[in-house]
Design a protein that fits this description.
Chain lengths: 374, 459
C-alpha cells in the first residue's frame, strides 16, 4: 500500500489500517493527518483540509455472533443495518437504536461519534452496550480495550476514551457489543400539547412515573411520542396507565392521548433515527429536560428545526446557519454539541468542549504526534 | 520534603485532630475487605471538603508522597491497601448529597456517600440509584466509581460506569478536571467512562453525578431449587434465550445455601444442590405476563421447588440471603478467598465443572455464588489458615480458576477490580501492547506514580 501515495486509502484488514496510519503519521509518512471514514453518513466530520482519508468501508463483516451469548463482534465498517438484520433473525437488537442507520451509518462510526437513537432513554446508550474494542492509535499500534464478556473490571477502559472522539484520537477497527432480546411488542402513544412547555410538563410526569416507556420524544410544537414495549398481553393495561399519566386536560392538551397506528409509529421512529425530518444540516446537542425550554427559544429564534430525543436528554437540530453560529449559541448556553451532517467543519465539536487537561493526557497516551488530531 | 515534614503542612490544611498518626488509629486502615494484604500507612488524613482533598493531593504531588484514597474499605481485591511510605486519604466524611434533581433525574454526590444513601435521598421523588453491590449498605460511591462496582442487577441495568454521567476529580499531579455532565446523551469522548474503573490510579473523584431511575412499579422474585448446579445453569441459558429480560438472575450452590441460610434464614431449601433467584421488574401487567413465561421455563428446567416472594419483606429476605453470602461463608470456614471471574454465559456449565475439578485437585472446598445472567462467578475458596500449606493451596486453586476464566474467553474480574490481588494475571488477559497503553495512560495522569501505586499493575 505504501508504494502509491494517495489521499484516500481503503484498508481491508486491521494490519492494513495500521499500515495506513503509519503511512500518514506526521514525522513518519508524507502527510500530517489521518481521518477515518466509512459509511459517509456524517458528512460534516470529513473536512477537505484533512490529510489522508482512511476509508474503512472494506473492513466489514460480523466476525462473531452467538445468539445464546447475547454478544457480537463486528469490524468497524460494518453497516448498522446489516447488523440489525442479523440480530433480528434471532430476536435480538441493539437497544439504543444507532441513529442514521438508514443513511448508511456503520457500527464504527456510531461508536466513534458516541451516537444514540430513541432507545437510549430506557435501556442505555452506545457506551453501555459496547463491551470491548480494538483500535489503531496514532503510532499505528493495534490496541484492545475491554473484552468479549458482558462484565469486565480488569484494566482501564481504553475503548471508552475513544468512544465519541470523532476519530480524533484513533481509529476503531473492531467492536464487541452486548445485545438484548428485541421487545416482543411495541406501542406508541401520542399526545399533542398546546406548547413545548406543556409537553415538557407531560414528559416530566412520564419520566417520574412507573410506566416504564422505552422511548420518549418531543417535537418543538409540543407533541409527545411515548413508546412502550414488552409483553403483548400487558400493552392494553399499560397504555391505559400511560394515558392517565399523560393526561388530557384541555388547558394543556389539544389532541390525545391516542395510540398511533403501528405502521405510522414505525415510520415515525425510523424517521427519528435517521433525522429524516430535518431539511437543514444536522447537529446533536447534549441537554437535559430542565434546559430544553431556554435552548429551544434560542434555536427557534434563528429558524432551526428541533426535536428532543432520549427522553429529553438529546436535542437534534436542523441548523440553517453557519456552524460557527451554533458553536457560539451553545457556548452561551453552556451546552455541548456536535455537527454531524452538512458542510464539513474542521472541528465538529460545538459549544463547551471536553476537559482539555484530561484530554491532553489521553492524547499523549494514544496519539502523541497528533496523527488524528483535528 | 519527606513525609515527616509533610505532616505539619497537611495539618495546616486540615485540623490536626483529623490527621491520624498513632499506631492504634492506623491499625484500622491496614487492610480492606481482602485481609491477606496488609500495610500500615504513615498517616491517615480525614478531609471534610473537596477543597481539603485537592489541597492534600497537591501537597502529596509537590512532595512525591504516595496516597491511597479510601471509602469504607470494602474492596475485595486489595484496592484500598495503604502504601507503607504514604498516607491514606479517607473520604468517609465527604458525605454530602449535593443535589437531587428530580426533573433531570440526577444525583450529585460527594465520594463518601454510601451507595444506599443515594437511593434513600432519591426516595421522596420516586427515584433510585440502580447499581447494587452486595456491600451497598456500607460501600461508598467513590469506591464504586474507582472499581466500576457491579451487583446483582447488572444483567439489566449495567455496572456503575453505566450510571455515572459526570465527575469532578483532582488528578494525581494536582490538576482539577471536570468530565461529562448531566445528560444521558453526552457528546465528545467518553472521558467519564475512561476514569471509572481506574482503581484510584488517576486521582480522586470529589464530586460525582449519577443517573437516577424511577423505582419499578413492582417486582416478581422467584426462587427455584434444583438437584444439580448444571440444571440451574441451564435454566439461566433458557431464560436468556427466551427473550425475557429479568432484572437479576443469581445462582447459589449447596455450600453457599447452607452458609446463607444459617446466617440470615432467608428460607432457602437446605437440601438443594443449587438455588436460582430470578427477579422481574416493571409494571404489574407486564411482569404478570412475563411471569407466565418465566414460570413455564423454570418448571421445564427441572426445578423441584419453586417459590414466589409473597411480600416485599420476603423479597428483601431472599436478597439479604444472597447479599450476605460472602460474610456468611465465614461460618463454614475460618478463612476464604473470593474470586470474581467472568466467563461467556454459554460456557458457565464448563466453568462450573472446571472449578469443581480444581477444588478436588487441590483438596479444597469451593462454594459458588454467581451473577448467572452475566457469567460472573464468585467461587469462595475455603481454607483454614492455621493448617500448614492451606493458604498456598487455596491461592494455587484461585490462580487456576482465574486462568480457566481467561482460557474460556472471559475476564479475571467482573466487578471487584484487579487491585493487588490479580495484578499478576492482567498480562495474561490482555496483550503487551494493551498493557503498555494502560501504563502510558496511568503515567500521563500520574507522572509521579503516587496515586494508589502498585494497584492494577506493579509500579
Amino acid at each position: 500500500m505504501k508504494t502509491f501515495p494517495a489521499s484516500l486509502l481503503r484498508p481491508a484488514t486491521m494490519a492494513e489500517v495500521q499500515e495506513a496510519v503509519l503511512y500518514a503519521a506526521p514525522g513518519v509518512g508524507p502527510t500530517t493527518r489521518v481521518r477515518p471514514v466509512a459509511g459517509r453518513s456524517k458528512t460534516a466530520l470529513h473536512h477537505p483540509g484533512d490529510g489522508v482519508i482512511v476509508d474503512l468501508a472494506a473492513l466489514t463483516g460480523i466476525t462473531e455472533y452467538q445468539p445464546d451469548e447475547c454478544t457480537f463482534t463486528a469490524l468497524a465498517g460494518t453497516p448498522v443495518a446489516e447488523i440489525e438484520r442479523r440480530l433480528a433473525e434471532h430476536g435480538q437488537s441493539l437497544p439504543f437504536e444507532p441513529p442514521l442507520a438508514g443513511r448508511g451509518a456503520t457500527i464504527g462510526g456510531t461508536v466513534a461519534c458516541g451516537l444514540n437513537g430513541p432507545g437510549r432513554y430506557h435501556h442505555g446508550g452506545v457506551r453501555d452496550f459496547l463491551i470491548g474494542a480494538k483500535f489503531v492509535d496514532g503510532e499505528g499500534r493495534l490496541v484492545r480495550g475491554g473484552g468479549k464478556v458482558v462484565k469486565n473490571a480488569a484494566g482501564f477502559y481504553l475503548h471508552h476514551l475513544l468512544l465519541g472522539s470523532l476519530g480524533r484520537l484513533g481509529v476503531f477497527v473492531e467492536l464487541t457489543f452486548k445485545v438484548f432480546p428485541a421487545p416482543r411488542e411495541r406501542r406508541t402513544v401520542r399526545v399533542a400539547c398546546r406548547s413545548l412547555a406543556d409537553a415538557l410538563a407531560a414528559l416530566d410526569r412520564v419520566r417520574r412515573s412507573t410506566t416504564d416507556p422505552d422511548a420518549v420524544e418531543l417535537t418543538a410544537d409540543g407533541q409527545v411520542m411515548v413508546r412502550i414495549a414488552g409483553a403483548a398481553e400487558a400493552l392494553e393495561a399499560r397504555t391505559a396507565s400511560l394515558a392517565a399519566v399523560l393526561g388530557h386536560d384541555p388547558s394543556t392538551v389539544t389532541d390525545g392521548p391516542v395510540v398511533v397506528p403501528a405502521a405510522d409509529a414505525e415510520a415515525w421512529w425510523t424517521a427519528s433515527r435517521d433525522v429524516a425530518w430535518a431539511t437543514a444540516p444536522i447537529a446533536k446537542i447534549a441537554v437535559t429536560p430542565s434546559r430544553i425550554l431556554a435552548l429551544d427559544a434560542a434555536l427557534a429564534a434563528v429558524g432551526a428545526e428541533r426535536r428532543y430525543g432520549a427522553g429529553g436528554d438529546a436535542a437534534w437540530v436542523g441548523w440553517p446557519r453557519p456552524w460557527a453560529e451554533l458553536d457560539t449559541l451553545l457556548t452561551e448556553h453552556g451546552l455541548s454539541g456536535v455537527a454531524l451532517v452538512g458542510p464539513a467543519i474542521a472541528d465538529p465539536m460545538l459549544g463547551v468542549r471536553p476537559d482539555e487537561a484530561f484530554l491532553a493526557r489521553v492524547r499523549q497516551t494514544v496519539d502523541p504526534r497528533g496523527t488524528f488530531r483535528g | 520534603m519527606g513525609l515527616t515534614d509533610l505532616l505539619p503542612a497537611i495539618a495546616r490544611v486540615v485540623p490536626v485532630a483529623r490527621v491520624v498518626t498513632a499506631s492504634a488509629g492506623l491499625a484500622a486502615f491496614e487492610s480492606d475487605g481482602l485481609t491477606t494484604f496488609r500495610a500500615r500507612p504513615r498517616a491517615v488524613v480525614l478531609p471534610e471538603t473537596a477543597a481539603e482533598v485537592v489541597a492534600i493531593v497537591r501537597l502529596c504531588a509537590a512532595n512525591g508522597i504516595p496516597f491511597v484514597a479510601r471509602g469504607s474499605g470494602t474492596s475485595l481485591s486489595g484496592g484500598a491497601v495503604p502504601h507503607v511510605d504514604g498516607i491514606v486519604i479517607a473520604l468517609n466524611r465527604l458525605t454530602r448529597v449535593i443535589e437531587i434533581d428530580p426533573i433531570d433525574r440526577v444525583a450529585v454526590v460527594e465520594p463518601g456517600v454510601i451507595n444506599l444513601d443515594v437511593s434513600a435521598a432519591a426516595l421522596p421523588y420516586g427515584l433510585y440509584y440502580a447499581p447494587d453491590p452486595s456491600s451497598q449498605a456500607i460501600c461508598t460511591i467513590g469506591g464504586n466509581v474507582a472499581f466500576n462496582s457491579g451487583g446483582a442487577h447488572c444483567f439489566r441495568h449495567g455496572m456503575t460506569l453505566n450510571h455515572v454521567l459526570g465527575l469532578k476529580a483532582v488528578l494525581a499531579d494536582g490538576t482539577m478536571v471536570a468530565l461529562g455532565g448531566r445528560s444521558l446523551d453526552a457528546v465528545g469522548p467518553d472521558l467519564v467512562g475512561g476514569f471509572v474503573g481506574s482503581e484510584g490510579r488517576f486521582g480522586i473523584a470529589y464530586e460525582i453525578t449519577l443517573r437516577l431511575l424511577p423505582r419499578p412499579a413492582g417486582y416478581r422474585t422467584v426462587l427455584a431449587a434444583y438437584r444439580s448446579l448444571a440444571a440451574a445453569g441451564d435454566a439461566v441459558s433458557s431464560i436468556v434465550r427466551s427473550g425475557l429480560l429479568p432484572g437479576a438472575m443469581e445462582i447459589m450452590d449447596h455450600l453457599a445455601i447452607q452458609a446463607a441460610e444459617a446466617a440470615v434464614h432467608a428460607g432457602y431449601p437446605l437440601d438443594a444442590a443449587a438455588v436460582l433467584l430470578v427477579e422481574l421488574e416493571g409494571e404489574a401487567a407486564d411482569i404478570d405476563a412475563q411471569f407466565v413465561d418465566l414460570e413455564a421455563l423454570i418448571r421445564a428446567s427441572g426445578a423441584y421447588h419453586v417459590h414466589i416472594a409473597q411480600s416485599a419483606a420476603e423479597r428483601l429476605a431472599m436478597w439479604k440471603g444472597r447479599k450476605s453470602a460472602f460474610s456468611a461463608v465465614g461460618r463454614l470456614s475460618p478463612d476464604f478467598i473470593v474470586q470474581d471471574g467472568v466467563v461467556p454465559r454459554s460456557r458457565l456449565g464448563e466453568a462450573l465443572v472446571g472449578i469443581e475439578a480444581l477444588g478436588r485437585k487441590h483438596g479444597i472446598r469451593v462454594a459458588n455464588v454467581f451473577h448467572a445472567g452475566d457469567g460472573n462467578l464468585h467461587p469462595l475458596i475455603l481454607f483454614d489458615g492455621r493448617e500448614a500449606g492451606a493458604h498456598d493451596r487455596a491461592e494455587a486453586c484461585a490462580a487456576e480458576i482465574l486462568r480457566l476464566c481467561i482460557a474460556l474467553g472471559g475476564s479475571i474480574t467482573g466487578e471487584h477490580g484487579v487491585g493487588l490481588e490479580k495484578r499478576d494475571f492482567l498480562a495474561e488477559q490482555y496483550g503487551e501492547v494493551d498493557i503498555a497503553c494502560m501504563k502510558r495512560l496511568q503515567r500521563a495522569m500520574d507522572p509521579g506514580d503516587i496515586a494508589n501505586p502498585g494497584k492494577v499493575f506493579a509500579s
